[in-house]
Amino acid sequence: MKQNKPNKIRKGIALSLFVLVTFEACIPKSQKIAENGGQITAKTTQTDTLSCCSSNLPSRIGGIKVDSTGIQAGSASKSDLDDMVFIPEGNFTMGGDSLWGRADEFPRHQVKVSSFYMDKHEVTNAQFRAFVDATGYVTTAERKPDWEELKKQVPVGTPRPADSVLVAASLVFSPPKQPVSLDNSAAWWKWVSGASWLHPQGKRSNIQGKDNYPVVQVSWDDAKAYANWAGKRLPTEAEWEYAARGRNPNSIYPWGNQPIDQGKVKANSWQGHFPNENTTKDNYERAAPVMSFPSNGFGLYDMAGNVWEWCSDWYRADYYLASAKQKIVIDPQGPPDSFDPDEPYAQKRVVRGGSFLCTDQYCSGFRVAARMKTSWDTSLEHTGFRCVVSSK
Predict the structure, then answer these.
(1) With left for phi above 0 and alpha for psi between -120 and 50, is residue 118 left, alpha or beta?
(2) CATH number, domain containing residue 348
(3) Cα-flanking dihedrals φ and ψ of residue 248, to 5°?
(4) Structural domain contains residue 60
(5) What proportion of the chain, given as a percentage, has pLDDT over 90?
(6) Residue 75 falls inside a structural domain
(7) 28-67 per-position pLDDT tens digit
(8) CA 177 from centre of chain
(9) Has residue 77 been placed in a domain?
(10) Which residues are CB-contacts of 379 (< 8 A; sequence separation ≥ 6)?
(11) What domain range includes position 322?
């Protein structure tokens, strides 16, 4: 039986119905970041959006929380671990590592993580289909929002959105035909009825022949539900960054320090002028099959580019400030709650790794230290996930 009966809306759901339809601008901010008594100046140009690559995207209207505890959990078997990579315990310096660093990546601080196993690639359509077939799970994007419940969670006086908006839908990349200002993501994101993991770009699209592509259009809740069923969990932000560095603790990217647009193609990212011209030098206009590009030093694929990946942590812009007060942080689990000063109503989770839309013109999200944030009930065409299992 399908588990499609909505439960309730999570308290504190983020929503500004104005930005739902007309996305507020992602305003670049020049920032000077003090670290170890010196100054690191974040690189800023007219096209940078250093304050937010995934800010000011709306949380899904009325994100209905289906309690994943209602899904029978699996347990990671030896065969499951065969498709995972063992990550040994270790210490590393977490945080911003280049002039592209944003304020929330500082100060850098010492972290120790215990050993764990990580999926060698992002969860695929085939893997997610097995979960849906076994449980009847219905994703956030496939469920119609409930305005009567939602309006209890938004500022008093927020008008009811049009019926054309209150439908099962998700956010789809829609490139403009001409150059546009990078201050307004509404120029390339559209709220599309019928868009879901089965139909990433809307009802007329499908995933036939794409079993080995990363599943997308999944919210944080969807990712957590899958992980629970598989006997796994989502990685902490610290685990994700440590794994992405791939035995190169001082590298800027999973492959080392060479910029992404120099030398051989290293990952699935945007080539050309964002967001209207993609030269597809990497041979992919959008997402690529998993493991299409070389792995990092741990044998992990697509830790840069392809699709953003959900982490377990709540997002707080000031979280690293608290972490840096400790000599070393052991297995950090993230802050107890979320707060984004740019969007105080939005409850956000951390996403990592960048996507096929990332470029140094815009977000430089393929850096190992780059941390972004997205409302937990938001699903997008360039967001997926991978799982981990503790080794002890």
Answers:
(1) beta
(2) 3.90.1580.10
(3) -120, 80
(4) yes
(5) 64
(6) no
(7) 222 222 233 323 333 333 223 333 445 555 555 433 333 4
(8) 26
(9) no
(10) 60, 139, 140, 141, 170, 171, 196, 197, 216, 217, 218, 219, 222
(11) 1-70+86-392
* Radius of gyration over every alpha carbon of the chain, rounded to an integer in angstroms: 20
Report residue 329's pLDDT band, with 50, 70 and 90 as the boundaries.
very high
21-25, 171-175, 202-206: least confident range: 21-25
Burial class (CB in 10 A: 0-12, 13-18, 19+), 107: middle
Q: How far apart, in Å, are the Cα atoms of 108 and each of 61, 90, 92, 318, 324?
A: 36, 16, 10, 12, 7
E strand or H helix that includes residue 192: strand 189-193
Query: Which pTM value belongs to this model?
Result: 0.84
Structure tokens at 293: 């590009």
pLDDT for 15 beyond 80: no
DSSP code, position 29: -
Q: How far apart are CA 266 and CA 258, in angstroms?
A: 10
Whether residue 389 is predicted with pLDDT greater than 70 in this model: the reply is yes
Task: Report the C-alpha gap between 251 and 257 in whole angstroms.
Answer: 6
Question: What is the average pLDDT across 281-307?
Answer: 97
In a domain, 9, yes or no: yes
Compute the mean pLDDT over every residue in the chain, rounded to the nearest whole number: 82
Partners of residue 34 on adjacent β-strands: 39
Q: Is the pLDDT of residue 366 over 60?
A: yes
Domain total of the chain? 1
How much of the chain exceeds pLDDT 70, in percent?
Answer: 78
Is residue 389 within 8 Å of 81, Cβ to Cβ?
yes
DSSP symbols for 263-332: SS--SB---SSTTT----TTS-SS---TT-S---TTS---SSBSSEEEEEEEPBTTHHHHHTTSS-EES-
Cα–Cα distance, 57 to 26 (Å, whole number)? 9
Q: Which residues contact 324 (CB under 8 A, 6 or more apart)?
A: 107, 108, 109
Distance, in Å, from the CA atom of 129 to the CA atom of 45, rounded to the nearest integer, reads 42
